[in-house]
Please model this.
Amino acid sequence: MNAPVYLDHNASSLMRQPVIDVMTDVMQHAGNASSVHAFGRRHRQLVEDARAEVAALAGVEASRVVFTSGGTEANNLALKASGRKPVFVSAIEHDSVLQAEADSTRLPVDADGVIKLDTLEAALSTSGGQVSVMLANNETGVIQPIDDVVAIANDAGAIVHTDAVQAAGRIAVDIAALGAATASLSAHKLGGPQGVGALVLGTDMQIASQIKGGGQERGRRAGTENTAGIAGFGVAARLAHEDLVRMQGVAMLRDGMESSLAEALPDVVVFGDRVARLPNTSCFAVPGLRSETQIMALDLAGLAVSAGSACSSGKVTPSHVLQAMDVPEALAACAIRVSLGPDNTKEDVARLVTALLDLSERTGRRPAA
Model:
């Protein structure tokens, strides 16, 4: 029987062995990073070493990194702590952005999933406030023109937050060069542990802590530091930074998979393939095969994929991202997401293509005209 194949790295990537090693070591030693004795100082050094590694991945000074419990908290902290109103968010954001501010205004994207800059400019013509546009979409992988977003926002006196959770470790990320005021990161998307992330602050950006009860993280996020998780994040960030060169091979694997899909299933529709995407991400639909049918069949075949974001309590629901791209409901209901990691192989994607072709034939699906 074939070994299971994991093709859902945008949901959570495999924790790397050096990350496990450093976390295991930390958990075998007592200490609190706020304590002044030797045990505490050791934990503090681990936190600061990790801060430097995460900063290097994001292209900022270490003092600009604020550790959080993950990307969701980082997004909420960015939108709530700046005190900037009104808030404008793209319609394809992660739910942790869309739901962070109930009165936020949603900005449309085009058919490729790219934010409409003219609409953004019009929305900001008489307002300042804050804009949140993700660096790369978690479902389609489409990369957003953050430098243009920042230029438009700055001209209107607004600041920009960018959710870089999916981008970090897959493309080069330089928050300082982009000019974003804040950016969010998450460890478990790049081979680190779940439950730890970071909010990266741009130059001169100040935030007020939303969690009260301590002065940790320079007064920007209260609560005892998760030293083991943070240390693991630091190692994962360093390894991801070093491994960026491998992403070219991942992109070739993704492109080869899509070509094989098009040959085996000529009516397959790939979303966002006309614009820049993350090298590891492919969101596509096989007309007539519903998402849940594909996911269950592929799971039985030992292949793990998803139907979009993994943050929906296990439910297969219509994708708000594809809805924002004006994808017809019937087609969107057939979409799945394949997200590759550096260790996936040609054999892995070949199994996927074969399994989908077999499923199409078993169900008697009629290809779209």
The mean pLDDT is 94. The chain has two domains: 5-13+245-362, 17-243. The longest helix spans residues 38-58.
